Amino acid sequence: MPVGGRKQAPSAVELEEATVTSTISGRSWELPGMWNRMFEPRVLRDYGSGGFELISALPGGESLEWCYGCGKCVPVCPVDLVGEYGPRKLHRKVQTGTDLVGDPDLWMCTTCGNCLRVCPKQVDMIQIVPAVREAAIGRGQVPPELQDVFEKSFRYGNCLGENPRRRHAWTKGAGVPVRVLPSDPRPVDVLLYVEDYWSYHPRGQQAAQAFARVLDALGVDWAILGPEEKTIGDSQRLAGEKGLFEALMEDVVATLGKYEFNRIVIPDPHGFNALVKEYPARGHTYDVAHYTQFLAPLVDELAWDRELDLTVTFHDPCYLGRHNGEYDAPRRLIEAIPGVRLVEMGRCRENGYCCGGGGGGMWLDSFTGNHTSERLSERRVREAAATGADALVVCCPYEVSRFEDAAKSTGNEHLKVRDIVELIDEAMGGAGRHGA
Ligand code: SF4
Ligand code: SF4
């Protein structure tokens, strides 16, 4: 700081606590180091550059150092709205001596991508965070609930630890025939890659059954892999387990190679992201569509049976919207459903608010709950309820159960949570149409 035309020599003294005495009242009180730093500023040269050297040496970690502190990323970070976060803050922590590899902040990022959207220096948390997490896994510093998911994914081929033979148990309640390729390996047009939550979670199974009925009504030639399907594991990759992702990919590619199909349709934006970005980067390219992209061009062929009389708001999944640029297909479907009126939340499309499930966050709710004032899903549900909508509609299998829990915990039980395909199926007559 210039004083009398000369630079004042900074003091490197930084007390962990200090006693401050008021010059007016004469009273004294203790201040912790956090406040003390305001009185005894430390200069950056007092810290080493070891933190950045370590992170920049990790493939993918290089860009954290590029930050120049503009702060644009912090107000768009969903975690900062319920805590203290954002790339600028992480950059500062590393700059001032925090070992990010061993810090709880490493596990808070959902890789939602909103910071990268606004960052003028291309500080890329989608690369940095998985790279540093991989280093943490190498040190054995992984939240136990995440380690459990890694083990289940490796052992059973699904993050829920369910029996692979029960992968297609959901088909029994669909009310329409579902072809399972291992038992009927004839060539097929559409391979539905069901993924874990639509296969096993009770609310996901309801959406899978609804989609089966819609495909049947459209006369699509489609099939599933049943017991041969394994998770694509993109969230495990982003949570730091690149090795597990690549092992799963080898299995998935080998299974896909056994059958003849024209295109893959997938309900999970995370699996979709891997199939359109990570698989081609490793030499495996398929014709892939998210289920909303598959249905949107067919909207005029859907045979409606009833009007729903419902005001809804829509939550953009980060890995369909921001990461892959698809905002219109889900909206086209919602707006086509008879009697459904769409109202948007303030944070939507490119600036959509993350549900907290991405990048491994799906399995870290108890861990992150210790570091935030509320869950991201709870904040999002409050935003949805504030629109006055009757229902929050989604098109990511992670979200139905996350938002239903959040609706209960925030006292918004009146807010229904529905997958888009559940509403489509209902307006087409639903299970009753088939006597299921
Ligand atoms: S927007 Fe980018 S450059 Fe600006 S503070 Fe955030 S990370 Fe740093
Ligand atoms: S990717 Fe999302 S959660 Fe992670 S730091 Fe950026 S804005 Fe925050």
Task: Write a concise synopsis of the structure shown.
This protein has 436 residues and is α/β, with parallel strands linked by helices.
- Taken together, the total number of domains comes to 4
Described by the principal axes of the CA atoms, the overall outline is: globular
Classification by helices and strands? alpha/beta
What share of residues is helical? 25-40%
In CATH, the topology of the largest domain is named Rossmann fold
CATH architecture of the largest domain: 3-Layer(aba) Sandwich
CATH class of the largest domain: Alpha Beta
Bound molecules: iron/sulfur cluster
Give the SSE order as H and E letters.
EEEEHHHHHHHEHHEHHEHEHEHEHHEHEH
Properties at a glance:
single chain, 436 residues, alpha/beta, Fumarate Reductase Iron-sulfur Protein, Chain B, domain 2, Rossmann fold, 4-stranded parallel β-sheet, 18 helices, 11% strand, binds iron/sulfur cluster
Please render the helix and strand layout as text.
Layout: E1 2-3, E2 6-7, E3 17-21, E4 28-32, H1 33-36, H2 50-56, H3 73-76, H4 87-95, H5 114-118, H6 125-138, H7 144-156, E5 188-192, H8 196-200, H9 202-218, E6 222-223, H10 234-238, H11 242-256, E7 261-266, H12 269-281, E8 288-290, H13 291-295, E9 310-314, H14 328-336, E10 340-342, H15 365-369, H16 376-386, E11 391-394, H17 399-409, E12 416-419, H18 420-427
Parallel strand pairs: 5-6, 5-7, 7-8, 9-10, 9-11, 11-12
Antiparallel strand pairs: 1-2, 3-4
Helix pairs in contact: 9-18, 16-17
The structure holds iron/sulfur cluster (2 copies).
One iron/sulfur cluster binds at residues 67-73, 87-88, 91, 118-121, 123.
